[in-house]
């Protein structure tokens, strides 16, 4: 079906949970990313689960709980360099693989995340 959402194609709620659970340990271990994230990553993981669900075309869970995403604005307190955007995307690439997402689908999901990741860059240092 051509009209299936990316959310459904990925595998719905269980898949998004799994991607998020694979992703944050990589973020926390990354030398450029770990230091800008809080020690207690659980609230971030929960918000990311809500957001990616919505971003990939599933139920609008993030907006229901947290209002308008305004994701670039929400990232302004953190120094997001071009290198950090690439690092984020590379952790996500690994997480999609680890979560067992089909490689073509993973490439498509990464493509969708690449625009926002680069758009969130707010400093060069
Ligand atoms: C929150 C970093 C890209 C989605 C955060 C936080 C940091 C961060 C430091 C805040 C953690 C805290 O609460 O203290 C980054 C970096 C990125 C990036 C370095 C590189 C470009 C993205 C992308 C998405 C995303 C591409 C999704 C398309 C989120 C969400 C939150 C968040 C949903 C939680 C927002 C909230 O507080 O409600 N990010 N992020 N981020 N990020 Fe990112």
Element-by-element helix/strand order:
HHHHHHH
Mean pLDDT: 97
Chemical compounds bound to the protein? protoporphyrin IX containing FE
Main sheet, how many strands, which sense, barrel?
none
The separation of the N and C termini measures 45 Å
Helix-residue proportion = 55-70%
What's the architecture in CATH terms? Orthogonal Bundle
> What is the CATH topology?
Globin-like
What is the strand content? under 5%
The global form is globular
- SS elements, strand count: 0
Secondary-structure class? mainly alpha
Topology overview:
Layout (H helix, E strand, L loop, with lengths): L5 H5 L1 H18 L12 H14 L5 H6 L4 H5 L6 H17 L4 H17 L6
The structure holds protoporphyrin IX containing FE (HEM).
Protoporphyrin IX containing FE (HEM) binds next to helix 3, helix 5, helix 6 and helix 7.
Any overview of this molecule?
The chain is mostly helical and 125 residues long. The chain is built from seven helices and no strands. It has one domain: Globins (Globin-like). The site of protoporphyrin IX containing FE has 22 residues, from helix 3, helix 5, helix 6 and helix 7.
């Amino acid at each position: 079906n051509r009209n299936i959402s990316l959310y459904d194609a990925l595998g719905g709620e269980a898949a998004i949970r799994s991607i998020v659970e694979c992703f944050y340990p990589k973020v926390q271990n990354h030398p450029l990313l770990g230091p800008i994230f809080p020690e207690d990553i659980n609230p971030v993981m929960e918000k990311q689960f809500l957001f990616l669900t919505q971003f990939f075309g599933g139920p609008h869970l993030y907006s229901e709980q947290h209002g308008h995403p305004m994701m670039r604005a929400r990232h302004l307190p953190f120094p997001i360099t071009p290198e950090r955007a690439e690092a984020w995307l590379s952790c996500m690439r690994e997480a999609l693989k680890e979560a067992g997402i089909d490689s073509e689908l993973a490439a498509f999901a990464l493509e969708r995340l690449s625009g926002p990741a680069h758009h969130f860059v707010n400093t060069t240092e």
